[in-house]
Automatic annotation (TrEMBL):
Taxonomy of the source species: Bacteria, Pseudomonadati, Pseudomonadota, Gammaproteobacteria, Alteromonadales
Record-listed 8-oxo-dGTP binding positions: 24, 29, 35-38, 120
Cofactor(s) the record lists: Mg(2+)
Name of protein: 8-oxo-dGTP diphosphatase
GO BP: any one term: DNA repair
Annotated keywords: DNA damage, DNA repair, DNA replication, Hydrolase, Magnesium, Metal-binding, Mutator protein
Homology family: Belongs to the Nudix hydrolase family.
Residues annotated as binding Mg(2+): 38, 58
CDD domains recorded: NUDIX_MutT_NudA_like
InterPro entries per record: Mutator_MutT, MutT-like, MutY_C, Nudix_hydrolase, NUDIX_hydrolase-like_dom_sf, NUDIX_hydrolase_CS, NUDIX_hydrolase_dom
Keyword Ligase tagged: no
NCBIfam families for this protein: mutt
């Protein structure tokens, strides 16, 4: 267990039963794997505020609201992450890879065809269990 905990806001972006996922750059932590877009929460920032900022930067959408799905703490060898996962369906703009990253709209069943970081197993279980 490492002492550094990285607090992260993660968005499950939903539109017409499809979810938007992105591929992490090779030089990032957990690089080359797929993710739900999001990023680190800055000091004093709420999860929603961080999510709004990160989703604007990474995928070019403006979010108006979000709802909590689950929070996961996961210990990777090099760091521990706390993923605050929210579902977002109320947004404007066309989601795209604003930082040049690969991306896809996928159905819940298709999530199994993509490789995600280990912490995402619980996120995907929650998505399936709640039929979000
Ligand atoms: N965004 C996101 N991060 C995830 C997921 N699963 C998972 O283990 N993580 C981990 C990887 C990273 O260690 C951390 C997220 O940080 P990040 O790299 O997205 O942070 P950021 O967007 O602020 O990026 P940077 O500016 O620091 O490069 O959480 C996921 O589904 N989405
Ligand atoms: Mg990020």
């Amino acid at each position: 267990m490492t002492s550094i905990i990285v607090n992260v806001a993660v968005g499950v972006i939903k539109k017409n039963n499809a979810l938007f996922i992105c591929k992490r750059a090779n030089d990032q932590h957990q690089g080359g794997l797929w993710e739900f877009p999001g990023g680190k929460i800055e000091a004093g920032e709420s999860v929603f505020r961080a999510l709004k900022r990160e989703l604007q930067e990474e995928i070019g959408i403006t979010i108006f609201s979000s709802s909590e799905l689950l929070t996961i703490k996961h210990d990777y060898d090099d760091k521990t992450v706390k993923l605050n996962v929210h579902v977002v369906s109320n947004f404007s703009g066309e989601a795209h890879g604003a930082e040049g990253q690969d991306n896809a709209w996928v159905s819940i069943d298709e999530l199994d065809n993509y490789e995600f970081p280990a912490a995402n197993v619980d996120i995907i279980s929650a998505i399936k269990a709640k039929y979000i």
